[in-house]
Amino acid sequence: MPYTMKPDEVYGLDIENTDYLKDHVNAPDRWVLNFGPQHPATHTTLRLVLELDGERVARCTPHIGYLHSGFEKLGEHHDYNQYVCTVSRMNYVSPIGNDIAWHTICEQLFDIDVTPRCKVVRTIMAELARIQDHLLSIGAAALDLGAFTGFLYGFNEREFIYDIVEYLSGQRFHPDWTRLGGAWRDIDDDEVFKRMIKDFIHNRLPKAQKDLESCLNRNRIFVDRLKGVGTISREDAIAWSLSGPVGRASGITRDIRKSEPYLCYADNWDGEGAEAVKFNVPISTDGDSLSRYLVRLEELHQSVGIIEQLIDKIPSGPIDTLSDSKLSIPEKGEVYGSIEGTIQLFELLMHNRGIDAPVGELYGAVESPNGELGYYIVANGTKYPTRVRTRPPSFVNYSVFPKLIEGHLVSDVVAVLGSLNIIAAELDR
Q1: Using CA of residue 427, residue 241, residue 421, residue 56, what is the dihedral sign?
Q2: What is the pTM of this model?
Q3: Which of 10, 54, 80, 319 has its CA 20 to 30 A from that of 71?
């Protein structure tokens, strides 16, 4: 493999210091390696054009667009409830988290305060989505480095979360569960729901966490492949607008659940003085791939703590704020048994009918498993938004990848990429 340095230049070279590459970026004898777009370790459909100096990456140029689906444009043709079926597909790893994010932000536009019951259930499911996302991220990152067993430890428990999601929404993979002001259906049986959650957080997940930690945390090969690889400082992380575990691994303390609290992360969430759920925000200052792994690992513990605070406090009452109004879809019995219910259903679902939004624009964000997930909505007073734009955390975090990988070995590409947890549908949208 060709090198851009002459033999007499390499004597005395510190092989761990990659500053020499800065002077050889435009060298003519560069090997080009295409990483993707179809590659088993890319996590998704993306392409990296790697320019190599020996086995070191001198330049990396990412290419996206292989899964472009027009998700944002679809927002102009779907009403505020229909669009939930699209946003859940932007992050197919933890889709119910996107459902909750979209309608939590829409409710700010409509000035709707959901019921305490809805807030509790949404918060529980948002944390389950975080656990679901992190289990896959940790497991897949381990798999890329040869730890197949670690992947199984994480992936097995994700299936049980799908069982919980199915019990709640009726669908496993794309639940599309939330609605403006609430949800399309309530929990069938609170006790069954609680029992499933408790079994997961008290029995199944702790065992999986213990297995993961014992398999990876002291594994010399795994640690050496991550420690000091793909490092970014706090200052650079802020400059690149990194968020979530990627940003917090570099010392950024921001967590929207703390800085701009919503649902049960905010005080007085029930209107009767209830305190916000208590949790710590895991922070590291090393900024490398190992830190990003450890931050996600600790967030699993914090999410379990949040769920434990709420699972026995699910309030009674309706889950839908609009249940007594003409702005919610009536029950089937009302549709089949009364002309008023039939009219109400048609008024909501027929073309040029539905819930009209106030005229205005809004940007709102929540703390998704991968960072700040935001939506910018322009409303024109009809049932359809004029514009919908997404601030996807994977797109922003992925933008820093060339900076993280340049100077490292080709074998480090999968390690750094796995630490970012890139979701392709968020890139292309």
Answers
A1: positive
A2: 0.86
A3: 319
Alpha carbon distance 251, 237 (integer Å) = 9
Q: Which residue reads 């759920």 in tokens? A: 277
CA torsion sign for 183, 184, 186, 187 is negative
- Distance of alpha carbon 280 from the chain centroid: 19
Q: How far is 315 from 264, CA to CA, in rounded Å?
A: 12
pLDDT digits (tens, 9 = 90+) for 160-187: 999 999 999 888 888 888 988 888 888 9
Question: Among 24, 43, 63, where does a domain finish?
Answer: 63
Phi, psi of 375, deg, nearest 5:
-130, 130
For the chain, the farthest-separated pair of C-alpha atoms sits apart, in whole angstroms, at 90
Residues 6+ apart with CB under 8 A from 286: 231, 249
Q: Same structural domain for residues 261 and 329?
A: yes
The CA distance from 175 to 166, in Å, is: 7
Q: What integer pLDDT is reported at residue 147 of this predicted model?
A: 82
40 in the same domain as 114:
no
Judge if 260 and 404 occupy the same domain.
Answer: yes
Q: How many domains does the chain have?
A: 2
Residues 128/300, Cβ–Cβ less than 8 Å: no
Residues 225 and 373 in one domain: yes
